[in-house]
Design a protein that fits this description.
heterodimer; A: alpha+beta; two-stranded antiparallel ribbon; two-stranded antiparallel sheet; 3 helices; 19% strand; elongated; B: mainly alpha; 82% helix; 0% strand
């Protein structure tokens, strides 16, 4: 329905930010995980994951309208196109007591920086709040419209 | 601001005589199209309510649904319901206005 365009757009943003939050929580939970993935019989630490946002393709109707010269409804939502792994090298920590330590006493730790994750977390939750505000404003506009002529 | 002009109305007036023959059918047509439009709109509202119901049930059963989706579906249902109520109020108001006519 066309009156819900802005709400649908905001809904896509809420879903995307939710997924981002899931990925951040996964990074935070695995900050000390030394056995993330088995590569050639050898354990590799957890690799930090990141989401990639992409603008959502408009619906067929919106493309048709654009082709006919109508400028209305060009608004597109957002979607997570993929989840990529951070390529930065693993952190080497000297800890000979650790059962995962190699012959030289170093342990390979995940490339997750908790500080950075916290900042990302704040960013995600603020973005979520902003989108909820947009949704509420959109709803109150619709409700105000219903008051016309009262 | 443009001054009011009745050119559109007056140009339509000569047509009204020829249209008079098909007046009965056109009224019936209008009533029909209005009825189908109303029916369709109410079906849409009902669909929104059902969608919200299904999502709420899924959430209650612990299935994999986004809480935001559930909330948004319920908000959509609420807005369409309010719009329907407003339209009903207007229709009833118009009916009562007609019934108050002194004869």
């Amino acid at each position: 329905m066309t009156i819900f365009n802005s709400i649908n757009t905001t809904a896509s943003a809420l879903t995307a930010q939710r997924l981002r939050m899931d990925v951040i929580s996964s990074n935070m939970a695995n900050v000390d995980t030394t056995r993330g993935r088995l590569v050639n019989g050898e354990w590799e630490p957890y690799t930090r994951k990141q989401v990639v946002f992409q603008e959502q393709e408009g619906s067929f109707t919106s493309h048709l309208n654009a082709a006919r010269g109508n400028t209305s409804n060009q608004a597109g939502g957002v979607k997570v196109s993929r989840i990529v792994e951070d390529e930065t090298p693993f952190e080497m920590v000297y800890d000979p007591e650790n059962p995962e330590a190699d012959e030289t006493g170093y342990v390979r730790m995940p490339n997750v920086d908790p500080l950075r994750e916290m900042v990302d977390l704040m960013s995600a939750s603020r973005s979520y709040e902003a989108n909820v505000t947009v949704l509420n404003a959109s709803k109150s506009m619709l409700m105000k419209t219903l008051e016309i002529g009262k | 601001m443009e001054p009011l002009s009745f050119s559109a109305v007056s140009s339509a007036l000569p047509l009204s005589k020829t249209a008079a023959n098909s007046k009965a059918t056109s009224v019936a047509n209008t009533q029909n199209s209005f009825a189908s439009f109303l029916k369709e709109s109410i079906n849409n509202v009902n669909q929104a309510q059902n969608e919200s119901d299904v999502l709420t049930n899924k959430l209650a059963r612990g299935e994999n649904v986004d809480l935001s989706q559930v909330m948004i579906a319920s908000q959509k249902a609420s807005i369409t319901m309010q719009a329907t109520l407003e339209i009903r109020n207007k229709a009833v108001e118009a009916y009562q206005e007609i019934m108050r006519m002194s004869v």
